[in-house]
Amino acid sequence: MGTQEWTWITVGLTFAAYLYIGYRSRVQTTEGFYVAGHGVPAIANGAATAADWMSAASFISMAGLIAFLGFDGSVYLMGWTGGYVLLALLLAPFLRKFGQYTVPDFVAERYDSQVARLVAAVAAIFVSFTYVAGQMGGVGVAFSRFLQVPFELGVGIGMVIVAFFAVLGGMKGITYTQVAQYCVLIFAYTVPAIAIAFALFGNPVPQGAIGEAIPLLNQLQTDLGLDPYTSPFANNDLLNVFCITFTLMVGTAGLPHVIVRFYTVKTVRDARWSAFWALLFIALLYTTAPALAAFAKTYLLQQFTELGPEGFLELPWVQSWAETGLIDTAAIANAGSDVTAFLNTINRDIIVLATPEIAGLGPFIVALVAAGGLAAALSTASGLLLVISSSLAHDIYGKLINPAASDAQRLRVGRAMILLAVILAGILGIYPLGFVAEVVAFAFGLAAASFFPVIVLGIFWKRATKQGAIWGMVVGLTFTFIMIVGMRAHVVAPGTFVEPIIESFFGIKAQGIGIVGMLLNFALMIAVSLATKPPPERIQQLVEQIRYPRVMSEDELADSK
Amino acid sequence: MARMTKEAYWRRQIRRIAILLTVWAVVAFGMAIFGAPFLNGFEVGGVPFGFWMAQQGSIFVFVSLIWIYAYFSDKADEEAGLTETPETTSASGEEH
Predict the structure, then answer these.
(1) Is B30 inside a domain boundary?
(2) Range name among A14-23, A307-316, A356-365, A392-401 with the lowest pLDDT average
């Protein structure tokens, strides 16, 4: 049996499993729909969070990106893991204690303001939409690449699958499907990495074999006249490496689809532990990716040095991937012995996709990588779609438009909204808008500049007021939005602008600007809060209550005066 | 047994968070970014140390920090009598 057949089998089996799990976890109440009835065990929530978190981009593109960026690829590795420390220490347990459905719920309740709810809900929808469009596109790419299905049909199949378990099961269906998707994706990622570590360096632990790859790789790069792989700041300056890492970390902690995962566990204690499990599960992939990156780069440069461009083109895996267009054989022949030109011809995604073949693994494992990439894209998409649906159905419809709605009505609207969101996301995946390419800068920058300061000060500072929160969010969001659009105008609207409107903000580029927006939000929130009346007694009690894991009686809380 | 007051509990939690976040910042920014060119002068198992911290070590440290936080917070909850029971766990949509 060939790769194609195996791919149909693995994708078919995993999809059938997701549908079955989705059907088994269908729910009848809004509590089940939005927060899985607060009944998810800590480890399961950890795995679901990890699957939610690791997108098609983490799975397929990240190792390749790091291979080509070298040291500077660390911004993604640290940015997308370090944020969990902020999340675990500053947000997760306290939001679980607060215990409602959505991030705008917390903002509205803590700041006693429906205006704040609306701002937060709109921000949550915008952030999630920019992010989800890329995921649906990723599903289409995976289908067309592995199964030679037309791109649009691939997106369509993905939409049907996600719609099925998300509409029926809401958060509960999504959570348990994500647990299965995590298992598929981590297996599909680590098996080829272990195989290639063993094949090239005789060490089956990728995180250990990196010690053998790096000296070799630095030597190869130096011999070919490139900067050593491990040299910092070759592709980006110190200031931007710092700002991007920081923005990605804070953005991670402020992304609503990650935060709401911590509402689904049973207790505050479980919220802390599920943050630990989540990062541990993420770390399995995130420490493997840089190892894989180093192995692949070493291998590529070794083959190039030993065989030259002609010999390289005759390698069997190169020929099989040349058929898909990911390896441009004509460009490689043209590049001749110029190593920089040679590296530029190679599509970054090839690093993960071709690893099984380079390591000499059979078609079954190649097929598994396809299933893994699809699992990563679908799990992230479903988490984001739930946030969009809950912001629309719970925050905007249930709390602002029709507060008298019954539970059954809210549930119906919730299901309808998730279906609508799936369709919109699919359309955006097929006809991407210019800004979708900038999704990372947008989603993380905006999350960092809006939610993070408002939630952190809301938890840790009783004096933070409604006016402070609204001003902080609005200005933080507006500043970050304008800066990103200005700096990326030529990408966002290529027809209208040839050049960026703003070059940089004191040297900080679009990807790292979120951190400035965050500081602005913090500063403004503190200043405005101090200039306005302290929040009412009731709110101060709520903040006090959130500090302690178990529910405190009013008498116990009153003791503190 | 003299229980920790809830004020003492909260002060302890704040101190724990502050210490762990200091370690977080020193590792992520101090060692793996600003200090990386300097630390690359040292090697750990064949890998320049600054690079290793940026792409491997820092992630191990992050996981450990959350473990320490969760483990010691559980202990503090118990000492202060603040551990949840099924009756005292906050529920969704509940008015506080």
Answers:
(1) yes
(2) A356-365
According to DSSP H, which parts of A314-328 are helical? 316-322
> For residue A433, what are the CA distances in angstroms to A255, A301, A344, A427?
21, 37, 26, 10
User: H or E segment at A434?
Assistant: none
CA nearest to B64 within chain A:
A276
Q: Which range of residues forms the domain containing residue B70? A: 6-81
Q: In angstroms, rounded to a whole number, what is the distance separating the alpha carbons of residues A135 and A3?
A: 24
Distance, in Å, from the CA atom of A466 to the CA atom of A454, rounded to the nearest integer, reads 10
Q: What is the pLDDT of residue A238?
A: 94
The pLDDT of residue B2 is above 80: no
pLDDT category at A538 given cuts 50, 70, 90 is: very high
Choose the closest CB to A545 out of B45, B62, B96.
B96
Mean pLDDT, chain A, integer: 89
- Residues in B closer than 8 angstroms to A101, CB to CB, are 92-93
**Are the C-beta atoms of residues A210 and A294 closer than 8 Å to each other?**
yes
Q: Distance (Å) from the C-alpha of residue A81 to the closest C-alpha of chain B? A: 7
Q: In the CATH scheme, what is the homologous superfamily, with its name and number, of domain A3-550? A: Sodium/glucose cotransporter (1.20.1730.10)
> Taking the domains of chain A in order of start, what are their residue ranges?
3-550
Q: Residues A64, A293: contact at Cβ < 8 Å?
A: yes
Q: What mean pLDDT is predicted for residues A478-497?
A: 84
pLDDT of residue A441: 66
Count of domains for chain B = 1
**Average pLDDT estimate for A230-240:** 90
CB contacts under 8 A, B 4-63 vs A, are 6-7, 9-10, 13, 17, 20-21, 24, 28-29, 32-34, 36-37, 40, 44-48, 50-51, 54-56, 58-60, 62-63
Residue written as token pair 């290529």 = A494
B68 has a chain A CB within 8 A of its CB: no
Q: What is the mean pLDDT of residues A258-271?
A: 92
Q: Which of A453, A553, A398, A543 is nearest to A97 (CA)?
A: A543
Per the domain annotation, does B1 fall within a domain?
no
Are the CB atoms for A414 and A170 separated by under 8 Å?
A: yes
Note whether residue B15 is domain-resident: yes
Query: Which tens digits make up the pLDDT trace of B56-74?
Result: 999 999 999 999 999 999 9
